[in-house]
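Quiz preparation item.
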């Protein structure tokens, strides 16, 4: 379901992985290569330094440089959204200012975590960032399994009523909540965040997706969307089954490390995830290789 708000963001976005050298430094050359390869695959946008990009394991300076590298390689061909969320408001403001000045299409923010902040405090965090960066457009990042905070049409009403909040990335299994937000806030871009629920999310109000396995398998997501829009539901469901098989295998292996290894299989060595993530076992690598057989 596509509404008229922000059509430039109603796309198939890759939640961009970040290649690393063996010493855990960022491999910017490989990053540029996988951005280019994904555009060739049909990826319609990039989401930088989110969960898939190990955003909270990166320094602020690395997050800025990764965004700059991505924007430079993209060169205006597709939109780039910068995830700038972290626990300290001043750091989020710093990253948001940089993202806006660098040319990101929008920013996205997880709520502050760990201390079990009240909803009033969480709302204040978002408002402080928006007030500090004039003209900023932001996307809420709803990922309760990581943050402990579940946004809904009710508890996020003050934020979703703010025109500077243009949408929400809904990485939650609660599709009822997604549908309720779509009805209550039809001017917001509702973005699916679970690859394995893409087709279901489309039926409940989402118009686009930001996905981890989109890094490697963008054409399948494009097929799901196009078949859904054409009303060819059985065929769309078959493509969703294919996505879910890949997700199942990669989650069992270790999803973020599996994406990097998938690119290694495809010919671009992306290294491993930063510690404390563990390297893939040989058994896990073999299971990922089978997805490309």
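Solution:
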């Amino acid at each position: 379901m596509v509404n008229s708000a922000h059509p430039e963001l109603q796309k198939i976005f890759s939640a961009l992985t970040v290649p690393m050298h063996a010493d855990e430094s960022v491999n910017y050359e490989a990053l540029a290569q996988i951005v280019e390869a994904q555009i060739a695959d049909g990826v319609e946008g990039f989401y930088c330094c989110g969960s898939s990009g190990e955003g909270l394991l990166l320094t602020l300076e690395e997050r800025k440089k990764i965004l700059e590298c991505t924007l430079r390689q993209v060169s205006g061909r597709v939109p780039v959204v910068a995830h700038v969320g972290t626990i300290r408001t001043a750091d989020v403001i710093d990253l948001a200012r940089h993202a806006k000045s660098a040319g990101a299409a929008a920013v996205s923010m997880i709520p502050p975590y760990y201390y079990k902040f009240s909803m009033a405090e969480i709302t204040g965090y978002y408002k402080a960032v928006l007030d500090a960066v004039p003209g900023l457009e932001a996307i809420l990042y709803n990922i309760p399994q990581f943050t402990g905070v579940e946004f809904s049409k009710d508890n996020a009403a003050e934020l979703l009523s703010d025109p500077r909040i243009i949408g929400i990335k809904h990485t939650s299994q609660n599709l009822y909540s997604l549908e309720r937000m779509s009805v209550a806030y039809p001017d917001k871009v509702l973005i699916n965040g679970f690859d394995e629920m893409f087709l279901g999310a489309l039926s409940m109000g989402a118009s686009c997706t930001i996905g981890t396995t989109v890094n490697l398998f963008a054409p399948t997501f494009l097929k799901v969307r196009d078949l859904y829009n054409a009303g060819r539901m059985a065929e769309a469901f078959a493509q969703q089954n294919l996505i879910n098989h890949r997700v199942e295998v990669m989650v069992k292996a270790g999803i973020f490390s599996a994406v990097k290894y998938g690119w290694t299989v495809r010919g671009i060595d992306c290294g491993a995830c930063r510690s404390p993530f563990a390297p893939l076992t040989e058994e896990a690598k073999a299971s990922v290789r089978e997805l490309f057989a």
